[in-house]
Amino acid sequence: MNWLLGVVPADYLLHGVLKRHPVALASLARHHLTACVQGARNGYRTARSELGPHLPPGAVEAVLAAYRSEGGRLAEAARGADLIERALHGEVFVPQMGGGGRMTPGRPPAPNVRDGAQPATTQPTRSAAESSRPQG
Fold first, then answer.
1. Helices and strands in the chain: count of H runs, count of E runs
2. What is 51-69 written as a DSSP string?
3. In angstroms, rounded to a whole number, what is the distance separating the alpha carbons of residues 16 and 110?
């Protein structure tokens, strides 16, 4: 929960409901971070036209580099918030030999998503019935 509290604006902490209900905090964090990613993408797309006339040469490239760096960080944080929210809704992420996680529905949540840690990406598992069906 501490990680989620750290990725939302400090003013959100004034609302006790978010501290009492981690699933609400996770949902709010996911929406907030998704909007931040979209804002960074829009800023990146318009940086040259908006800032070019007002910045010295090379500064626009530095701004674009900042957008790329922060955009990547924000996108990873948004994925992390999404995975935490999914875990709080009961999805379970089981480690795979390949290092990723697999979701196994119907089991109680495992404590592999800890405060302060960003969860790994996941792939949904197929049920035994689905596994026996041909792909295609």
1. 5, 3
2. HGGGS-TTHHHHHHHHHHH
3. 26
Cα R_g (the chain), whole angstroms: 19
Q: For the chain, how long is the longest CA-to-CA vector?
A: 62
pTM of the full structure: 0.66
pLDDT band at 100 (very low <50, low <70, confident <90, very high): low
Question: Ramachandran region of residue 106, left (φ > 0), alpha (ψ -120 to 50) or beta?
Answer: left
E strand map for 1-136? 93-95, 101-103, 122-124
Q: For residue range 7-60, list pLDDT tens digits in order.
A: 999 999 899 999 899 999 999 999 999 999 999 999 999 999 999 999 997 999
Q: How many Å apart are CA 127 and CA 68, to the nearest integer?
A: 39
Confidence (pLDDT) at 48: 94
Helical (H) or strand (E) element with 87: helix 59-88
> Which residues are registered as beta bridge partners of 124?
103
